[in-house]
Design brief:
Elements lengths: L5 E10 L4 E11 L4 E5 L6 H8 L7 E6 L2 E2 L5 H7 E4 L10 H6 L14 H9 L17 H13 L5 E5 L7 H17 L5 E5 L3 H7 L2 E6 L2 E3 L4 H15 L1
Parallel strand pairs: 3-8, 3-9, 6-7, 7-8
Antiparallel strand pairs: 1-2, 1-4, 4-5, 9-10
């Protein structure tokens, strides 16, 4: 069997100021082709885990491996290019939608590729937004529109995996479904080489966007959810389909 796309070995985080463990030593493997949903109570450490997996915060223990090799400090920018993290509230720069989409190409790690206007138009067309959307001011976007822009900004860069930290939690149902549809479209184009980890508090959404479900409580990851949790997800999926 091939090495996992991403693997955590003994990943740990703590708050030194409060002397509090945020993430107990955690093992986790994400294989290409997987769609994982992470659920659990608020404050249980889900975001801490996902940010640690994305190597966005310093680790207090453990290692992250990418295609079977430990991610050395020098490889972190490349790792983040391919293992992309999308947070709940997007951070957009001042300027237009197009300015935001072009911004990544000004960074050294992306200088081998160029902005593809046709591809961006196709992504926005899938959400019913025309070419004029690119000229909209980022400051004038709704929450749903801003999240769509943030997602397209990531998808255009062809990541291998998306780490989605409740990206639809503050969106209306229509905007949430648009985000789900864009992620699904991206995944299905190359499902044998791509993967997702999606944090969600919505059982119906979890049933739609994931095929493997894991839970977290008090900083402890459980990769084998209880039958009750699985049952609730299945019921939600059934109800959503009716």
């Amino acid at each position: 069997m091939s090495a996992p796309l991403v693997e955590a070995r003994g990943l740990a985080r703590r708050d030194a100021q409060r002397d509090q463990v945020l993430l107990h030593p955690t093992d986790f493997a994400l294989h290409s082709g997987e769609r994982v949903v992470l659920t659990g109570p608020s404050g249980s450490g889900k975001s801490v885990f996902l940010r640690a997996l994305a190597l966005l915060d310093p680790l207090d223990g453990g290692t992250v491996r990418w295609h079977g090799e430990a991610v050395a400090r020098a490889r972190i920018p490349s790792y983040r290019r391919h293992i992309a993290y999308l947070r709940q509230r997007p951070a957009l720069i001042d300027g237009s939608v197009e300015d935001n989409l072009r911004y990544p190409y000004s960074l050294a790690v992306y200088r081998d590729i160029r902005f593809d206007a046709a591809r961006v138009h196709a992504l926005f067309d899938a959400t019913g937004r025309g070419a004029d959307f690119l000229s909209r001011a980022a400051s004038e976007l709704s929450g749903g529109e801003a999240q769509i822009v943030a997602l397209v900004r990531v998808l255009q860069l062809d990541p291998e995996a998306l780490l989605l930290d409740e990206p639809t939690a503050s969106l209306d149902p229509d905007s949430a479904r648009e985000v789900e549809a864009l992620v699904e479209q991206w995944f299905q184009l190359q499902r044998e080489t791509r993967a997702t980890v999606w944090i969600s508090h919505d059982p119906a959404q979890a049933a739609r966007v994931g095929t493997r479900h894991i839970t977290m409580r008090a900083g402890v990851l459980d990769a084998s959810p209880s039958s009750v949790a699985q049952s609730s997800l299945q019921q939600a999926a059934s109800g959503d389909a009716q």
